[in-house]
Structures are given as structure tokens and as C-alpha cells.
Hints:
By secondary structure, the protein is an all-alpha fold. It folds into two domains: about 10-75; about 80-215, Serine Threonine Protein Phosphatase 5, Tetratricopeptide repeat, CATH 1.25.40. About 70% of the residues lie in helices and about 0% in strands. It has helices at about 10-35, 40-65, 80-95, 100-110, 115-125, 125-130, 130-145, 150-165, 170-180, 185-195, 205-215.
Amino acid sequence: MSLWQLPAWFGWLLASMAAMVVLATGWLAMAAQSGNDSADSRRWFWGLVLGVPLLAMAVYAKLGHPVAANPALHLPDNAAETMVSKLAAKLQANPDDPAGWLMLARSYKVLGKLTDADQAYERARALALTRVDDLADWIQVRLDVAQGQFDPQTQELVAAAAKLDPAHESVLLFSGLLAIDQGRYPQAMAHLQRLQTRYEAGSADHDALTQVLAQLKAGQDPRKPQGAGAATQPEK
């Protein structure tokens, strides 16, 4: 664990220790000036100032983060699936809950149950169609299920997302991929060039898009290995 990954309370502990040391130094200096300073009082005071924080640090080193020591948070491995199953059962009994279906869809997506996620997104359609991030997730789910193919419904979702936010990064990407799928290379280049401006020059994403754009300009489908078949004639 790096310094930046330490919990916030640990930083406050270190800051408190530093403050206590400063105050202790000032107190001892004042005691010395007033003649009330003694070896016993100094030992007692420093023991109190440093002992308690150091004890807390020792407990942390022995037991770990206090939150991790909470038995209630040690859930069984299948706890997530159990919770999702309970949510699914609840929605089957009370299906008129778009927000619930949307939560279920996100949960299925995280669990990798993409077909179930797609079906849950469909039940939450009215709500999902108003949120570009949820639409982007739904589009990705459908593309993963269909191995990258844009069926008519997925195309409709891309169009709906583009109406909500045509400058959204995921929307630009899906719009570009759809245009490639349909052989509309100039339109694909326009979307992907706009997407490329979101990335810093020299970054992996920027360089990858540079290569894709070069292939599109040459009339090649970037989804296929170079030299695999004849170049596709781009739409003008």
C-alpha cells in the first residue's frame, strides 16, 4: 500500500501527532521557564503525547483498517448474486419499477450476465432512454452479446443516444463503429476524429485512433486484419 492509498483517518492521526508534538514542546519550554520542569514530568508528558497515537498505530498494523475488521462486511462469495436474485424476484412481483429494473440491469452487467442485463434494460427502457450513460451501457451489452454486430434495435439505441448527447465519448465511438459497419467511412472518420480530440497526443487511445483513421482513409475496415480480403470501397 502506498502513502496515497492510506485511509483518511490515518492522515489525520499523523497530523494530530505532529500538532501534539509542537504543543508539547511549547508546554515544556514554558514549564522550564517557570521552574516547574522535572525529569518525571517530562517523561509522563511525552508518554501521554506519543503513547496513545503510537498505540493506535500498533493496533492498525495488527488488525488492519477498522472497517475491514467489521464482521458484518465479511460477506460470502455469492452474496452479490444472492442480492441480485432477490432484487430480480422483487421486480417480478412488482414489475412497475423502471429504476429497479435499471439497477438490476447494471447489476447483471457487472456480474457478466449480459443476456439478462439486456432484458432488464428493456424493462427499464422508458427510463434508460432518458440517460445517455445508461444507453451507452445498454448498447455495449448488446454489442457484446451480438459479437460486435449492430442489429436494428442497437442502431435505434445509438440514434437515441446521439439525440441526447452527440458529443458523449461513448456516443462518438458507437456512432463511428456503426458507420464503419454500414460502410460509411467518411461519416465514421468524422465521429472518430472528434473522439480523438478528447485524448492527449501520444496517448494509447490517441495513437490507436490515428491508426484506425489511416485505415479508413485507405478504404480499409479497421476491424479486419490488414491484407484480409480486398479493401472495401467507402461510401462517398
